[in-house]
Amino acid sequence: xxxxxxxxxxxxxxxxxxxxxxxxxxxxxxxxxxxxxxxxxxxxxxxxxxxxxxxxxxxxxxxxxxxxxxxxxxxxxxxxxxxxxxxxxxxxxxxxxxxxxxxxxxxxxxxxxxxxxxxxxxxxxxxxxxxxxxxxxxxxxxxxxxxxxxxxxxxxxxxxxxxxxxxxxxxxxxxxxxxxxxxxxxxxxxxxxxxxxxxxxxxxxxxxxxxxxxxxxxxxxxxxxxxxxxxxxxxxxxxxxxxxxxxxxxxxxxxxxxxxxxxxxxxxxxxxxxxxxxxxxxxxxxxxxxxxxxxxxxxxxxxxxxxxxxxxxxxxxxxxxxxxxxxxxxxxxxxxxxxxxxxxxxxxxxxxxxxxxxxxxxxxxxxxxxxxxxxxxxxxxxxxxxxxxxxxxxxxxxxxxxxxxxxxxxxxxxxxxxxxx
Amino acid sequence: xxxxxxxxxxxxxxxxxxxxxxxxxxxxxxxxxxxxxxxxxxxxxxxxxxxxxxxxxxxxxxxxxxxxxxxxxxxxxxxxxxxxxxxxxxxxxxxxxxxxxxxxxxxxxxxxxxxxxxxxxxxxxxxxxxxxxxxxxxxxxxxxxxxxxxxxxxxxxxxxxxxxxxxxxxxxxxxxxxxxxxxxxxxxxxxxxxxxxxxxxxxxxxxxxxxxxxxxxxxxxxxxxxxxxxxxxxxxxxxxxxxxxxxxxxxxxxxxxxxxxxxxxxxxxxxxxxxxxxxxxxxxxxxxxxxxxxxxxxxxxxxxxxxxxxxxxxxxxxxxxxxxxxxxxxxxxxxxxxxxxxxxxxxxxxxxxxxxxxxxxxxxxxxxxxxxxxxxxxxxxxxxxxxxxxxxxxxxxxxxxxxxxxxxxxxxxxxxxxxxx
Lengths: 421, 421
Hints:
homodimer; alpha/beta; 36% helix
């Protein structure tokens, strides 16, 4: 039986018919490699923006059901056009929307989760030698309602299809050449990672590396689907392979450095040190659908028997957060609410740090040498994050990138070539 | 039980979001009349042209299956936006594409015929008080393939839905105020017909009155669905009611005059007068999917034992026709093929002419008085068509319109008011 490769192309890759022709070539190349190919595409370029704009001109709050009906058309245009472009090159191809495949989701509009993918139609068409082009981002409920998957939806469609089909690999084609040790716009000699573990990728994604949506990586991890992030404009470069730690060739203590400049820090001052205060605070936030990232509670002051609770949120959630806190302040007995949005979260990520002591102290020393004040620290098994002044972020990223040997040529020496997959 | 009204709005009626808001008002007005409302919409304005252009830039011959996948997105955009616009006015509404409703068609792409419409989902949602917005022009096969219905598709969707739901009426909203006795651009005092029979409408449609596609009228006739053609910009005008002859208030000998300027006449000269020649000729044309309109075979000349076969076709089919005839000419032994595309077919149509002698002679005399040469004549029970020089067409239409008393005020006197429907 042939190996199945799932390929995903985003909106910029299919932004016009010339680009669609290029995508057709990439697809055909994989077919010519002797593989069965299932392609997942997003809506063309600015299609979604255009549709949203029309909807908003009719009503400020369009129903999410009708938004899903509206937006799901974008991918159907892409799959038809890409299929035509592949057929024009003499290859047998067929397009399917989510309803036709049976990409079954929960009955929740605008952010449904995939619960099952029917594979009979796909397998039958692959057996007939066809290249299959599937609409990403969309799903269907048992009742025949059209849903969309929300942010990162097409990546998630691709990974879920790869899992359902037991595919060899899921290739996410994008306009960058892979996952880098840090943002190349900040550190020009950032090096592309040949491989990275799901866990590292998740931490890098959450820490502000915008290559993949965490949700697709989580799905890939859950079903052990190897993913590749690669460029549709440089096919000779194999990009970055994302796999389980156990499958990785080698560890390095730190795989990457990321900075997230979109956070704000809130300090709720002098709240009584008694049970239930933090729970009340954060459940009120959760009810408003506000994601809280770092949380630090200070030791209780002995005399006043109060402490401070500090946490970070996305700046987009700041107005909502302040409105929640305004109502809560007196209830929980806080003396003051302080806000600082001139901050950045700088993180180092690496599965290798689990076994190697001294990584955290190296990070703190590096920042101290540069006279950068650390405002908050949080750690996970494979990540250490420090909150610093926004103005210090770039300096911090560059220094950490150097001190952990992430420069381009150093990495190349250590890693060697990847085995062919 | 409430009466069900099916409304259909074409592409120009939903060309932009402002127009969609206007359509929402028309829909709500019907709902406020105490009726259940099912709305069928086409793709917005130039959407279809834009999609076709993209497809053609990829390949000169896109597969009809993928064209259906592509084009069917246009109506899905319209239904979502119209539903939002209705909801924005505080009314409960829901959109369905053809797959969701179950508008079942043959498995033929780009010109499928509807074989069945599932009504459970529609009835359930109507019972819940919802206005239902359905995508026109599209269908689905038993295998879940998306099809489109071809020209006149959305009108046909609307009529078929009206038939399946046993609707009170199917209102076709358009940018004209109804069906006229002739093209008002040619005869300024052409009068709007308050009612017309299916048969007359069919002949008028075939004869070049571009208000409705004949296919939708045929479907309406088959299932006895009363149709109304009316303007979405003048709701006080009830437009034209299209019903069975037996339901009409009164007959008039001639209901309308139509001219078709898009025909060409072909004369196949001096073919042997023996059985099978005409059959061979027209089956070759049929195989190429060329529709032949008028056919006249002259009496056989006694000396040569040959005759001429003349027929008319749509000028769009002229190249294909000439290629067929080029191959056939020697086979059937014709001496020459003559083509004339400077012609026009002028027709008078009326269910009333069945019982009244003298209509044809009045037509011929009228043309003779104007010194207009009649090149071919064909008749049906309710239509008489004369082929004339294209340059004579306008003159002929005006004179016939006058001689059969179709001017605006005369008609108004004869007909009186329509009963409320």
